[in-house]
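**User:**
Everyone, produce one record:

**Assistant:**
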Amino acid sequence: MTRSERDLVVSLRNELAAIDPARSCDRVAEAAGMGGALGGREPSVARLAVRLRRAADSPGAANFDWDVAADHCRTAWLRGRFLACGSLSLAGGRTHLEFVVPSADAPVLAARLEAVDLHASWRLRRGKGVVTWKSGEAVGMFLRRIGAAGALLELEARQVSRALRGELNRVLNAESANLHRAVAAAGRHLDAIAQLEADGRLQTQPYVVRLVADARRETPEATLAELAERAGLHRSAVQRALERIERLAEAEPSAPDGPRSAMMSAHA
């Protein structure tokens, strides 16, 4: 990931860590989702874990049970689970979110995500369970659910910007290819016109062909549509005239017929 992308991921985690659940049951649920091990997580996440652990250990705090938990408690648990073992990658223009959990926990987490309409795939990797989303839409739904509104807006803005840049590059590449083809065609036309004029065949062509040839010589950079407008013809007529010119240039000039050639030889 680029530094900008890493900064966005850090901003996302800080935004989630700053959420202070209003309900005590949500604090207990989020603490359960985070578990005990935080490893090298950000200071903001570590501070959150301490606050939530105090709430979970307070007298009267109930244990979290996914099966009977309210929807808001499930959301808090998922937020804690992401902060504890989730990661987001934006490398190469792709959005990839995964949870790395103990192998036995992977199918459980995948089933819980499925229960809240967030289908995810899971697999084993080097002895760990990995629950994954590779769809930008699925990642967006999850982040929206767990409260990462600000970072999600920034992520979506970057995705739109990346898509627009990609479309612009596609259009520019197509226009460049069209321009190269037009320049190459114009070069062929001019060479063919010069050849036909040198051997006298251009003057024997129909008026429309000569008209188009003159228009092409006067405006080598013009498109077929511009040549048609200049000559007062349909575009198809201009295209046929230029194709005729190229075909004639590729063919050898016709030799004089037999009798006339013999007469010319006798007079010589």
Observations:
- The chain has eleven helices and four strands.
- Residues 256-268 have pLDDT under 50 and may be disordered.
